[in-house]
């Protein structure tokens, strides 16, 4: 996980599809029309995100978090089993070596059908991922961390560019 | 994006690393120790997620949302340009065809250094992704959608399993 470099959100990127949307908006700029011009979003002052069809960005993000929570639940259950039920721990490890966790729901469905012991593990994973999503995951913290990360990344990118630019200029 | 099947969160999965953590907890079960036994998390009633090291699950999720927001910002800016500045739109499209959006920060850094016109595009993308993260993205909705998705997925998985089981039994 730590070495992940692939971003699913940007997969199958089709920014330049034939359809045209002229109702995008950017706060603070009169250059851009606001999405309030869309009959379906009356009074909306938000930027229009093109190309998401029926699924909102929030739903896309929730879908990926859903998979993340399954991954987290598998980690939690696995660590629990490791300390008191090595047999089940090994069974889960063996199952994981044969099945991908990329699609959490598919993983759970397959785990349920492996054997009665695996079924019990699957039910626990379902229970844990639900509890984690609703009780343990710090949603407010997520927003705070994401906002901070955004500020830091933007500042760093601009600073690095300026430094590079100064070095290039001084090297001339 | 719609066809995404790869989950980054579960990449480099190393659930079964040699280290052992015996302080995992599950709400409502006396079988599991609570993470309050950890001196660093006194009074914590949350499930312990093993293997995350210094980075919390919230930080991991925020990191992926950060990339998602860059992707969203590129979509927004691209759609804006399409309606009033075809030249810049084509330049961005051409740049996108040569550079991956998997790492949003790297993409922006490279866009900044392409040319002065590309630099202006990059600065706009930085501005838009920050505004989107802080103003437009519906964080409360994200939590609501994720919780609903979790309930629906768990119910569906269990229902499908029961139906399969009934069919198998009746087929005997």
TrEMBL record, chains A, B:
The gene is LOC115757041. GO terms for biological process: carbon fixation; photosynthesis; ribulose bisphosphate carboxylase complex assembly. It comes from the Eukaryota. Signal peptide: none annotated. Pfam families: RbcX. SUPFAM superfamilies: RbcX-like. This is Chaperonin-like RBCX protein 1, chloroplastic. GO terms for molecular function: protein folding chaperone. Keywords: Carbon dioxide fixation, Chaperone, Photosynthesis. InterPro entries: Chaperonin_RbcX_sf, Chaperonin_RcbX.
């Amino acid at each position: 996980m730590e070495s992940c470099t692939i971003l699913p959100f940007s997969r199958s990127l089709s920014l330049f599809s034939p359809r045209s949307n002229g109702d995008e908006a950017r706060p603070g700029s009169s250059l851009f029309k606001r999405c309030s011009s869309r009959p379906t979003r009356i009074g909306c002052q938000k930027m229009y995100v093109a190309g998401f069809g029926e699924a909102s960005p929030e739903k896309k993000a929730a879908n990926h978090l859903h998979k993340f929570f399954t991954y987290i639940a598998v980690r939690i259950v696995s660590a629990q089993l490791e300390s008191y039920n090595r047999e089940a721990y090994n069974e889960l490890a063996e199952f994981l070596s044969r099945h991908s966790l990329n699609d959490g729901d598919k993983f759970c469905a397959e785990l349920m059908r492996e054997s009665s012991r695996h079924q019990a593990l699957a039910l626990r994973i379902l229970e844990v991922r639900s509890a984690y999503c609703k009780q343990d995951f710090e949603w407010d913290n997520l927003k705070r961390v994401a906002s901070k990360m955004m500020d830091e990344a933007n500042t760093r990118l601009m600073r690095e560019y300026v430094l590079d630019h100064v070095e290039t200029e001084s090297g001339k």
